[in-house]
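Hi P.,

Sorry for the delay on this. The queue was packed all week, but I finally got your sequence through. Input first:
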Amino acid sequence: MTYTTVQYSLNLIKDEARELVSKGVVSRQQPIYTLCQYIPAREWAGVECELEACNFLLRDRIGDLIGCEKWDND
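Then the structure:
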């Protein structure tokens, strides 16, 4: 059996988090470690390493990770 692993960059993690927030699956107020429910377990260690390398803690809020929202209709 062959497993494909995805190399998660910070931008990819942010995009995944934004998508989950926009769908209403997670809240901007939840801690980043909530994302582990939506990322395959075998890839979570790589995500953690990338977050730590970019000075994010798993207890930080998802809103801190994804930053400000931009509205097209403002």
